[in-house]
Design brief:
With 183 residues, the chain is α+β, with helices and mostly antiparallel strands. It has three helices and five strands. 27% of the residues are buried.
Length: 183
């Protein structure tokens, strides 16, 4: 898009597409989550904390599904993060042809609700998710969300944060109650 005056509009410094692969093993789940978090922080992507937490949960669920259900046919999974125009899209690709569905499950089971969770987090944030087949016969499961929640106007309310780097470890909370015996 170009503006009047022939100065072309440039994407923000943080916009782009990043892709990495990981082995289809359980240890790849937290590694993928940390890699996505660190990427967003390193790139200076402005977003609200609840958007970041939802996005990281989605990454965990999608990589977990690929590791649990596709590892036999897909020794590696690919994680892609695309950031543009106030939106972020994460996708996980594997070589297994089965197209998962977000089905209601027996609530007595301890698992099987990952895609339901992904769908609900994405919808609540004002985004969308889907599964697509790849040309090689595998699949890509993706979720796209706005960087700010629905109804949020960037730059208003002071609730958009940009972290300078990886998050520091949590610090213990100390009580700040006033001393009742103090004057």
């Amino acid at each position: 898009m170009e503006s009047r005056g022939s100065i072309p509009a440039r994407p923000s410094a943080y916009e782009g597409v990043w892709r990495f692969t990981a082995p289809s093993v359980d240890a790849s789940v937290p590694r993928a989550r940390h890699a996505v978090r660190d990427l967003l922080c390193r790139q200076g992507v402005p977003r609200r904390d609840e958007v970041l937490q939802g996005l990281l949960l989605i990454v965990s669920e999608l990589v977990t599904n690929a590791v649990k259900h596709a590892a036999l046919l897909s020794p590696e999974v690919a994680v892609e993060v695309a950031i543009a125009a106030g939106r972020v899209r994460v996708s996980v690709e594997d070589n297994h042809p089965y197209r998962p569905k977000a089905l209601e499950t027996d609530w007595r089971q301890t698992g099987g609700r990952g895609l339901l969770l992904v769908r609900e987090i994405t919808r609540e944030a004002g985004g969308m998710c889907d599964v697509e087949h790849t040309a090689s016969g595998g699949k890509v499961v993706w979720a796209e969300m706005p960087l700010a929640p629905p109804g949020h106007t960037p730059g208003h309310g002071g609730d958009t944060v940009t972290l300078p780097g990886p998050m520091p470890p949590p610090q213990p909370v100390t009580s700040r109650r006033p001393d009742p015996s103090a004057p």
